[in-house]
Amino acid sequence: MKRRKRMLEDLDRDIREHIQMETQDNIERGMSPEEARYAAMRKFGNVTRVKEEAREVWSFVWLEQLLQDVRFALRMLRKNPGFALTAVLILALGIAANVIVFGVLQALVLRTLDVPHANRLMTLQPKEGGPFLAYPEVRDVRDDNTVFSAVAAVEVNDFGLEANGVTRPAWGYEVSGQYFEVVGIKPFLGRLLQRADDDHPGTSDAAVLSWPAWNGYFGADPNIVGTTVRIDKHPYVIVGVTPEGFNGTEKFLQPDIFVPMANEASLDGVNWLESRSYKNLFSIVRIKDGVTMPQVQAELNTITARIARQYPKDEDGLAFKLARPGLVGDFIGGPTRGFLAGVMALAGIVLLAACANLGSLFAARTADRAREIAIRIAIGSSRWRILRQVVVEAFVISIFGGACACGLAWMALTGLASWDPFAGSPIKFHVLPQPSLILMAFLISVLAGVLFGVTPLRQIFRADPNDAIKGGSSRSSAGRRWALRDVLLAAQIALCCVTVTAAFVSLRGLGKAMTMDMGFNPKNVVRTEFDLSQASYTADAADHFQRQLLEGIAQLPGVEAAGYANATPLDLDASMSAVFSQQSADFRPSKKAFDTYYYEVSPGYLAASGTSLLAGRDVSFTDTAKTPAVAIVNQEFARRLFHSERAVGRYFKNRYGVSIQIVGIIADGKYFTLSEDPKAAAFFPISQKGDTKTALIVRTRRDTGDIVGTIREVVHDLDPAVPIRESGTWNSQLALSLFPSQVATVALGLFGAFGLLLSIAGTFGLASYTVSKRLRELSIRVALGAQAKQILSAALGRMLIVLGSGSVVGIVLGVAASRLLSAIVYQASAQDPFVLAAVALTVLLAGSLSVAGPVRRVLHVDPAPLLREQ
Amino acid sequence: MGRPPEPDFLPGTLEMLILQTLSRGSNHGYGIAQHIQQVSEDALKIGEGSLYPALQRLLLNDYVVAEWGFSENNRKARFYRITAAGRKQLGQEKRSFDALLVGIARVMQTP
Asked: Which residue in B29, B52, B85 is closest to A380 by CB distance?
């Protein structure tokens, strides 16, 4: 714009001078000075209007020239389809990577839940520990606060949903009375659950269907309201359907049905509504208009302090913080955001590398056109005009690239949204592409265009028209001085090394995770899961059923070992329990020794799951409620309590003060995530307590596929009403635990491959360019008797310096960046010598691959024809 | 708003006249207008209202460049100089103008 201002000032002075000259002439013709000036002014007319018109010319000419430049750029690209295609493809991939990652980021983190005034919706979360609250805590906050317009509790649960004679497993939310007030949506059909539905147990048999369940299970029946269904054998009446687009208040967990929380005892088989130690709920609150977050936090602190004083036994040290709802409360919010930010940074690096690549391509092309540019400047074209044309060419390429990227990203996100990675789980990715992504792609394209379009800036402004006139363009500087494109290439190689390092780190991490010792061996094991409370079993009846089932299964041919448990390690819903030392007399939570993972198992479970018993005995059916309490603990448990693994025969106490004798020691394992540090775990005889939740573990010598069907038959023969949640190989069911690292590995692997491709393309391009530019000089050297080694170092020596320094910088950066990866990729460590060696080898290989062609060409230089030619 | 618009030339003709004037040597805006008026024996009066926009067009297309210098009576003035691209453009315009004139003449001479 400075240029425009100068032109305007020039025009101004020009016109003033014009009038002066006219006045002078008029005086010479004999007018008086005033008269002369007046006549000149009159002749010139409206000065302002002339200026305006001149300025209009600028915008018009500017547009016209822009159109010319666009046409010229298109012609250049058509003339050079190879270059155009490569450039568009490189950019399309670079931009698509960014748009896809941004789309996922937007869907999972940036986008709020699809409810009115979603920014007033928050979740309460304990300041320390897991995301869960106990029901009385939520009730206290609901009744004592002045800052929320509504407060609700949610428990995610799986039900047996019986309708039209079919029982299917369904996911549901048990919600407290104000849930739909918090959410603030209008029903699609009928009504939603109200406070009255949650008044006391059994007060209401109302249930609300979600739109997808209504559409999928009930064929979008418009007369659904009033229909009776059975949930875990209890009759419920459908009173309404939630609107389309409302998928509950968890971004990953889509519920099928909503039922009043007051009825939970009949559905869960345990009454936890009055228990302060049974923390199993998410909370969700709506903040009143005009109330600020600090006010809310202050009031929460007052309420929790009062609760802690009133119930020191269970609530000692209670404190809540506010968090955005949607990602298991906000429990996985941190890692999810961190991971996506890391991937976004990598995507940005790939785009930068792509821009550097295209930038050096452009710089090389501009160098080739040096003569043409010099001539154009000599015949009076302005440098601005030439620069603008190069930039327009860059923009045309980047807009094409952006358009292709949009298509790619759209397909990828649509695919991801319809992908159902875990059959039978409610986990879905709501990442449907938004129109705003097009804008995003456009912005990135423009940015990229500017980035690589202005690289030839210096070349154009240094271009000397005398060179063209002297005809000396072959004295081009290629290979003599350090040029911008060398720096760009080094930068690009460094960036690509970062992505390659990240890819290798995550690949290595996944490999380790696959072979890591989990404390059990899921190979050749079929795991079958069901909850007998869904068929209205009591704990006693469940015990009877489970034993009968185990006897039946043990007799099947090919079964090596079988057992069952209430839950197994790496389940989503791991339970924890506080451990106190045998000497302890104070059982407040703050006095506990530590928390342990908690499992109830049958005899045979250890053998079937492949858990090695290091000392002592297995549990037995002779351990009953009437015999002394016993447990099997892992090494970590023993180490933490006794600082020794010799724990068999010793005692600890639970939070009720009951002494429990340790009868066996098992090897450490993984219980919640694969990336966790060693954790304490305790396995109790299921016959001492009993649970309706059943995970049947069968180790087989036969093909696991055959036995799955047989197990289903055995369960069905015993009671056809038992809804089997899932039955299949344990390995496939563990997929969920491995899922994050698999996703990370695929994503990072793609980025790594793309980065590698870019650096090969960039190195090859620049190496062959350098060689072709200096072919004449090299021929002379050969003619004068230079040795192959000298020729090589003359031609490509600097190239190797660029390659080497770029790689070293890149690997160092990559190692530093990979620390961030270890949060999500298990066992990821960039200090791993294997990783470092692999990265170095890959870079070396890619480097040699990309300079192999140019090297061959240098070594086969034949001086004769070239020297004859000129 | 001042005077009625200048009698129109065929589109682009004014630029051609300016380039032709400048091909004899660089000149300032006032000088260009004077020259065209004198040579055409007052048949073509270039209004300043169209002269300066036309000069801007030529500048922006790199057909002329402007630089500050001193006029014959030692006044500071902006001198317009034709570039090589401008000469090329002038040649093209002359040719198409000639063709146009021949065409018009043929039509007009046919009774």
From this structure: B85
Query: Helices B48-60 and B13-22 sit at what angle, rounded to 10 degrees?
Result: 80
DSSP state of A614: E
Residue A547, pLDDT score: 92
pLDDT tens digits along A547-590: 999 999 988 888 899 999 988 988 766 778 889 988 888 887 77
pLDDT at residue A477 greater than cutoff 50: no
The span from the CA of A864 to the CA of A129, in Å, is 79
The pLDDT value given to residue B5: 41
Q: Give the integer Cα–Cα distance in Å for A377 and A383.
A: 7
Contact present, A379 and B82 (Cβ < 8 Å) = no
C-alpha–C-alpha distance, residues A10 and B80, integer Å: 12
Half-sphere exposure of A234 (CA within 13 A, CB side): 21
Query: How many angstroms separate the CA atoms of A40 and A43, rounded?
Result: 5
Compute φ and ψ for A603, nearest 5 degrees. -60, 145
Bridge partners (DSSP) of residue A599 are A683
Interface touch A17/B78, C-beta < 8 Å: yes
Integer Cα distance of A51 and B39 in angstroms: 27
Instruction: Work out the minimum CA distance from A380 to partner chain B, whole angstroms.
Output: 5
Token code pair at residue A489: 């290439």
List the single best residue of A21, A27, A382, A387 to mutate versus B (max B Cβ within 10 A): A21
How far is the C-alpha of A365 from the C-alpha of A389, rounded, in Å? 13
Q: How confident is the model at residue B2 (pLDDT cuts 50, 70, 90)?
A: very low
A71 to chain B nearest CA, in Å? 16
**Which is more confident, A663 or A10?**
A663
Helix (H, G, I), strand (E, B) or coil at A346: helix
Selecting from B2, B60, B62 the residue whose C-beta is nearest the C-beta of A46 gives: B2
- ipTM reported for the complex, 2 dp: 0.75
**Residue written as token pair 């691959």:** A849
User: What single-letter amino acid sits at A843?
Assistant: V
Contact A17 B60 (CB under 8 A): no
Residue B83 φ/ψ, nearest 5 degrees: -100, 175
Residue A794 has pLDDT above 70, yes or no: yes
Length of chain B (residues): 111
Contact yes or no for A15 and B63 at CB 8 A: no
Q: Which of residues 368-407 of A touch B (CB under 8 A)?
A: 378-382, 385
Least confident segment among A134-148, A204-218, A410-424: A410-424
Alpha-carbon span A36 to A45, nearest angstrom: 14
A799 with A767: CB under 8 angstroms?
A: yes
Q: Model's pTM, two decimal places?
A: 0.62
Using DSSP, state whether A560 is helix, strand or coil: strand
- d(Cα A284, Cα A261) in Å, to the nearest integer? 14
* Three-state DSSP state, A531: strand
Partner-chain contact A379 B3, CB within 8 Å? no
Within the 21-50 window of chain B, which residues sit less than 8 Å (CB to CB) from chain A? 28-30, 47-50
Question: What single-letter DSSP state applies at residue A199?
Answer: S
Q: What part of A 35-64 touches B (C-beta under 8 Å)?
A: 43-46, 49-51, 53-58, 61-62
Residues of B in contact with A378 (CB under 8 A): 84
Q: State whether B52 and A14 contact (CB < 8 Å).
A: yes
Q: Are the CB atoms for A736 and A424 separated by under 8 Å?
A: no
Query: What is the Cα–Cα distance from B86 to B19, expressed in whole angstroms?
Result: 7
Q: Is the pLDDT of residue A741 over 80?
A: no
Assigned token pair, A838: 């692999």
Identify the helix (H) or strand (E) that includes residue A598.
strand A594-601
Model confidence at A866, pLDDT cuts 50, 70, 90, reads: low
A142-193 pLDDT tens trace: 888 888 888 888 888 777 788 887 777 778 888 888 888 888 888 888 888 8
